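ok so i was messing around last nite and threw this chain in just to see what happens. nothing serious, just curious
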Amino acid sequence: MKRLLYVEASPRKSLSASIEGASIFMDALLRQHPGIAIDSLDLWAEQLPEFDGATISAKYARLAGREMDPAEARAWRQIAAMVERLRTANGVLIATPMWNFGIPYKLKHWIDLITQPGLTFSFHPETGYSPKLLPRPTLVILSSAGDYATGTSRGRPDLATPYLRAALSFIGLSDVSFLPVGPTIGPDHLVATARNHAHATLRSLAATFLTEAAA
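result:
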């Protein structure tokens, strides 16, 4: 059975344009693949471990090649379980708003937790960094108050897209597409036109999203 990991990064739920878009995409995807399992990860409900104390010590123990103490080993097992949830997914869907030109801190928190040596990337002094995850279809639905279709919105930059592209590619998720939803604020006709266009594109993307997904 194919499995989609759905990462929900907006706290607004019924008011969120990114979550609305994700629902439309997943409905279309389920029609295309009726047996697919949806693994929902709500970053505002999930008890993500703090990246401090034993957790960060475990990372440096791994980097140094030393044996972890019991507290570090427990923290590392929790991190490894989060990575396994991602590693075994056939596809990844991330629904997020743009906050202050970037992403919500909860999404950054999750990325910091799963970007770990030996789990999602490796390092060699001669060859540098290498991703450890296999590429798989990955879609980011990014909603924003402004219209970033031309790259900027009234001079304001989109820092979320290049960051997410680089961060996901670093661990191996290089097959990533971005679907912007915006503007979400402004004249009603402009907001409606932007959403309708995004929703139509999402339904189209769902038709082939998992066709060549990794096993």
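not much to say yet. Residues 80 and 119 are 7 Å apart (CA to CA).
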